[in-house]
Please model this.
Amino acid sequence: MRIRSMAREDVPELLRLMEGIVTYERGSGFRLTEAELLNRGFGERPEFGAFVADRGDGRLAGMAVHYEIPFMHTLQPLLMMKWLFVDPDQRGRGVGRRLMQRMARHAVDTGHQKFSWFVLKDNAAARAFYGGIGATPDPDWDRWLLGAEAIGALTAGG
Model:
């Protein structure tokens, strides 16, 4: 198993893994396509990057997808991990840990002192995994969202 940066040839497998995590997270309306991933990941201004766990047989065992928020109050960018996903049949083999190690090296190499991500509240296995590598929940922030209905009401002056 080799951990490396994503390549154009990985797009079909990345799409498979991305759909896998969205399904696991009970998401709906999965609309990503290979063309969209190529454009957003390898276009003139890439919007995301990924590290992949290459099995060596044309299949990926996992991925860590990342992006940057351009700047925060410190004028430094914030490194975010969008998704960490390991195929269910590859779990327990250290793939997730190796992907997180690569993310940590990327943070150091790009001048970030930390990186952040979200975890489903009921994903006990992920919480245990992240705790086991020394990560902690952010004590200061909860994620909030404004859904379509609320956006409609707000824009209508409600």
